[in-house]
Amino acid sequence: GAVVSQHPSWVICKSGTSVKIECRSLDFQATTMFWYRQFPKQSLMLMATSNEGSKATYEQGVEKDKFLINHASLTLSTLTVTSAHPEDSSFYICSASSRVNEAFFGQGTRLTVV
Amino acid sequence: DAKTTQPTSMDCAEGRAANLPCNHSTISGNEYVYWYRQIHSQGPQYIIHGLKNNETNEMASLIITEDRKSSTLILPHATLRDTAVYYCIVRVGSNDYKLSFGAGTTVTVRA
Hints:
The complex is a heterodimer of chains A (about 110) and B (about 110).
Chain A: E1 4-7, E2 10-13, E3 19-25, E4 32-38, E5 45-51, E6 57-58, E7 67-73, E8 76-81, E9 90-99, E10 102-105, E11 109-113
Chain B: E1 9-13, E2 18-23, E3 31-38, E4 45-50, E5 55-56, E6 61-64, E7 70-75, E8 84-92, E9 105-110
């Protein structure tokens, strides 16, 4: 299957700082990428849909000014958690689709805000 | 997208077949059944999908009932590495690949 890579795999940051997470489709072009968040012992929750060259679409309850998404190219989308606080500590996962019936996920990024 | 119901957890023996059920009684005619799994602290992994017919690939088989209201994912020879949370998702096939994840089934394969 296609490869989606996230970087970094884990990050620890101080409260009040910003953190950027990258999601790359390594061997295909993805016009749409999705960002999910997963808290311990819970399922994945969709945060936003990232479309190349346009503004992201956020799910209800997700603060767009806090979670900045940029999809500047067909192979790269970034999620920036601004002014991070401990409650933002979570597992962030992106996905991208190369064909109609399959989506591929990154390995996830574990964010810990201290 | 239609809602799915899965058992919370199940155990199976290594080397035996694991049969994972999923109910999707409100599925529409144009909705596909997808299965993903998530091994601890990793991103979800695509397993298989189907519309009406049974499907098989190198990882698993998908059996969909004739009325399409339920399906079963079969792992033919479970190994310890198959221990994961398995998600059954129903969605309309399109280029917009937005997935809604439920709680899934936690499968534990025991030696």
